[in-house]
Amino acid sequence: MKPPYTITGTILKLLVSISEKSGEIKAAHLSKPPAELRKKNRIKTIQSSLEIEGNTLNTEQITAIIENKRIIAPQKDIREVKNAINVYNQLNVFNPFSLNSLCNAHKILMNRLVDFPGKLRGKSVGIVTGSKITHLAPPGEMVKPLMKELFNYLKNDSDPGLVKSCVFHYEFEFIHPFMDGNGRMGRLWQTLILKEQNPVFEFLPVENLIKEQQSAYYSALAKSDRAGNSTLFIEFMLSIIDTSLEDLLKTQNLVLTGLDRINLYRDVVKNIVFTRKDYLRHFKKISSATASRDLKMAVDKNILKKTGDKRMAKYVFIERIG
Question: Are residues 298 and 200 located together in one domain of the fold?
């Protein structure tokens, strides 16, 4: 059964705006931002999503953990960060349309933090804010059927993927399928669904904007609960996504390195043989000399295999191992 929501005028306007910005991002070769920006955005994503759940570590401390440096902080907070780093580094492994894959991600994310990571709950649970129960989740025996139904909607419904990612996020939080870790899992899985639509979302720190508007985020969830549908939450999340893309476009004056261009082009041509002329056709703003330097660097680093010489030279990406 399809979850209840309405495609409003606001949703349609946001979808158009997101589509336009996505086109600008592709034209600016920002679908896969420069390596340093990707690293910064990934750290922002992890820090923001965990801070929403009460984690105390800042971006500098998370950077130190990534660089295998010791920090002084609560062990639980360090464990949460290490788990999050691990799971976000494996985004390409998970299948956004698989319940088993979601459970595997939860197992990594909540490793050594809960008793049964990766296991759907079998007990009833309520969300308490202060002294009041603000959300009573469906009974434990309904969790698996509801999650299967939700994944069926995600895989088969014809509505735009952007909308379905928001609906999934809301319904996931409503079902509350795990005893703990549902907030960070809901945000992670929406990122995974969005990444399936456009690679730019893999490193877009949507969670950072959610953290900055945390009260509005929880308010949108609560209002949708009271309304009995996810329409208001869809509008909220699409506005967050739209703003995130706008923020990325503000970075388009960043200078791409030769390695950045080579990595971007790998995503375009995959394992197809190409020439310097093909490369220049994609990166119209660089000179022939710059293109030649990029390609030579990639050959020297064993990223590309070259056959032929000068104008007759052809290139193909060497398959990554592991």
Answer: no
Domain termination site, one of 194, 219, 249: 249
Buried b (16+ CB within 10 A) or exposed e, 74-87: eeebbebbebbbeb
Cα(55)–Cα(78) distance, integer angstroms = 9
Question: Is residue 174 situated within a structural domain?
Answer: yes
Planar angle of CA 273, 276, 280, nearest 5 degrees: 115
Question: Whole domain around residue 273: which residue ranges?
Answer: 258-317
Per-residue pLDDT of the chain (322 residues; tens, 9 = 90+): 899 999 999 999 999 999 999 988 887 777 777 777 888 999 999 999 999 999 999 999 999 999 999 999 999 999 999 999 999 999 999 999 999 999 999 999 999 999 999 999 999 887 767 667 777 889 999 999 999 999 999 999 999 999 999 999 999 999 999 999 999 999 999 999 999 989 889 989 999 999 999 999 999 999 999 999 999 999 999 999 999 999 988 875 566 789 989 988 998 898 999 999 999 999 988 999 999 999 999 999 999 999 998 889 999 999 876 4
| Domain C-terminal end among 222, 249, 276 | 249
Does this model's pTM top 0.85? My answer is no
